[in-house]
Design brief:
The chain is built from 12 helices and 20 strands. By secondary structure, it is an alpha+beta fold. Among the domains are: about 80 residues, 2-Layer Sandwich (Dna Ligase, domain 1), CATH 3.30.1490.110; about 150 residues, 2-Layer Sandwich (Nucleotidyltransferase, domain 5), CATH 3.30.420.40. Helix 6 packs across helix 7 and helix 9 crosses helix 10. The structure holds adenosine-5'-triphosphate (ATP) and magnesium ion.
C-alpha cells in the first residue's frame, strides 16, 4: 500500500516566519498537517540582516510546526525575497543531430544547459526556466520533445540571487539542523499558489504586497517573463498612519487592521473611529475617512509603482489577464475596487487555493508564498539545489529521483 509523504516549506518574511508541513496522501491529495507562525526578526525589507535573530525565529516556527507531527522535520524548501535577486532572459542553441530520431529529454536538458549565462562572482543562479523554443526557425514551440529537428533554440528566464543572501538564508535554516532541499524565488512560489494557468497564458502581473516589499512576477505566454521587488509594503502604511495620527506604531497597526479601508467610497460613509488614549492624552473621535487617507495615498503610490515597473520591464499596457494581488496587505477591504479603478484592468485579490486543513482564520493572503513553495516543491521534486558544507556553492541542478526516494523513506509513517 502506498504510504503518506510529507513536505515542508518555510517562508522568512519581513513580518512573520511561516512553516507549513503538508501530507501528500496515497492518492496524491494534499493536506496541511502542521503550521508554525511566529513574528519575524532580523529581517528588513525581505532581507536577512541579522542571521542569529532570524535563526531564532526560524527555530520557533519549525518547533511550532513540529509539535503537530510528533517527529523532526527532515528537510525543507525555503523562499528567498526578490529584494536580493535579479532576472534576465537568455538564449541557448543545440544542433540536435539526432539521425532521424526525435528530440529526447536529454537533448532538451543539454539545450537548457546551453542557455545558462555567465554571471558575476557575487551572484548565484537560482532558476533557469525555458520560456519558449525555436525549432528549425519555427518560433513559439512550447516543447521540442519528440520533434524531428536540426537546430533548436531556447529562450530561458534566469533568476540569480546575491550569493550572500543565499548563504544567510541557508545559515538561518540549516543552523536549526533542518537541511534545505531547495531555495525558490518568493514571487515564483506565490504565483504557484494563486495564479490560474489561463491567466499565465493571457499574461498577468502578480503583486505580493507583504510587510516590507511588493514582489512582482509577470507571466507571458504561460511562463515567468519578469520578476522584481519594490521596497514598499504594509509597514509603510502603518508608519504613515502612525505619523498622521501622532500615535505609536503598534497602535497604528491595530487601527489599520480594524478600520483600514482602501475604497474611495469610505469618504461618503461618514463613520467615526474612537482613537485609543496613550501617554495620558484623552481619547478622541476622528472620521474613518481621515484615518484611511494616508493608507489610500500609500496604496495608490504602490499601484503606481507596480505600473511603472511593468512598463520598465517592457509592457506597453497591462496584460489581458490583468493584475492579481496577494500578500497580507492585499487583505485591506476595498483594495480590489481601488486597484480596478486605478489600473483600469481586471484585478483579483487572491489567497492560496486548493489546500485542505488550512485554517480560514489565518490571514490567508499572507500565506501565498509558503503554500506556493509547497506546491512548487511537489511539482519540482526531481530538482535539487546543490549545497556544499561551507554553503559557498549553490546552483540548480536536476537531482536524481534517488534523493526523493530516500526522503520518502525517511518520512514514511504507519
Ligand atoms: N486586514 C489587513 N489590512 C491591512 N493590512 C493588513 C491586513 N492584514 C495584514 N496586513 C498587513 O500585511 C502585512 C504582512 O503581510 P505578509 O505576511 O504577507 O508580509 P511578509 O511576508 O512578512 O513580508 P514581506 O513579504 O514583505 O517580506 C503587514 O504589514 C500587515 O499589517
Ligand atoms: Mg511575504
Amino acid at each position: 500500500m502506498a504510504k503518506d509523504i510529507f513536505y515542508t516549506a518555510l517562508d522568512i518574511g519581513t513580518s512573520k516566519v511561516a512553516t507549513v508541513v503538508a501530507q501528500v496522501g496515497p492518492d496524491g491529495e494534499l493536506k496541511i498537517v502542521g503550521t508554525g507562525l511566529v513574528p519575524s526578526q532580523g529581517v528588513v525589507k525581505g532581507q536577512i540582516v541579522n542571521v542569529a535573530e532570524a535563526q531564532e525565529a526560524v527555530q520557533a516556527s519549525l518547533n511550532e510546526a513540529q509539535r503537530y507531527m510528533g517527529y523532526r522535520i527532515p528537510w525543507t524548501y525555503v523562499s528567498i525575497a526578490g529584494a536580493s535577486t535579479a532576472c534576465f532572459n537568455t538564449t541557448g542553441v543545440i544542433h540536435a543531430d539526432t539521425n532521424g530520431d526525435p528530440i529526447t529529454g536529454e537533448n532538451v536538458e543539454q539545450l537548457v544547459q546551453s542557455s545558462y549565462p555567465q554571471i558575476p562572482e557575487d551572484k548565484q543562479i537560482l532558476h533557469v526556466m525555458p520560456v519558449n523554443y525555436v525549432v528549425d526557425g519555427y518560433r513559439g514551440v512550447r516543447s521540442p520533445l519528440g520533434l524531428h529537428a536540426g537546430r533548436v533554440e531556447v529562450e530561458s528566464h534566469v533568476v540569480m540571487a546575491d550569493r550572500d543572501a543565499i548563504r544567510q538564508t541557508l545559515h538561518a535554516v540549516e543552523d536549526c539542523n533542518v537541511p534545505v532541499r531547495d531555495v525558490v524565488l518568493s514571487s515564483l512560489a506565490s504565483a504557484e499558489a494563486t495564479l490560474f494557468q489561463d491567466e499565465k497564458e493571457m499574461g498577468v502581473v502578480l503583486a505580493d504586497i507583504g510587510a516590507g516589499t511588493t514582489d512582482l512576477a509577470i507571466f507571458k505566454d504561460g511562463s515567468l517573463w519578469f520578476d522584481t521587488s519594490i521596497p514598499v509594503g504594509g509597514n509603510q502604511l502603518t508608519r504613515d498612519l502612525s505619523v498622521a495620527l501622532g500615535m505609536p506604531y503598534y497602535f497604528a497597526e491595530d487601527l489599520k487592521d480594524k478600520w483600514g479601508h482602501a475604497s474611495p467610497d469610505i469618504e461618503q460613509a461618514g463613520e467615526e473611529v474612537l482613537l485609543p488614549s496613550f501617554q495620558g492624552q484623552s481619547r478622541r473621535l476622528i472620521r474613518r475617512s481621515t484615518l484611511c487617507k494616508p493608507l489610500i495615498d500609500r496604496l495608490q503610490e504602490t499601484l503606481g509603482l507596480i505600473m511603472l515597473r511593468a512598463q520598465q520591464a517592457g509592457l506597453r499596457r497591462l496584460p489581458p489577464g490583468g493584475v492579481v494581488l496577494t500578500g497580507g496587505t492585499s487583505r485591506i477591504p476595498g483594495f480590489q475596487q481601488m486597484a480596478t479603478e486605478t489600473l483600469a484592468c481586471p484585478v483579483r485579490v487572491a489567497a492560496p487555493v486548493g489546500i485542505r486543513g488550512f485554517s480560514p482564520e489565518h490571514n490567508q493572503n499572507a500565506f501565498s508564498t509558503v503554500i506556493g513553495l509547497l506546491l512548487w516543491g511537489i511539482k519540482h521534486q526531481n530538482r535539487s539545489g546543490v549545497f556544499n558544507k561551507s554553503r559557498d556553492q549553490y546552483g540548480p541542478s536536476r537531482g536524481s529521483n534517488a534523493f526523493f526516494q530516500r526522503i520518502k523513506k525517511a518520512v514514511k509513517v504507519k
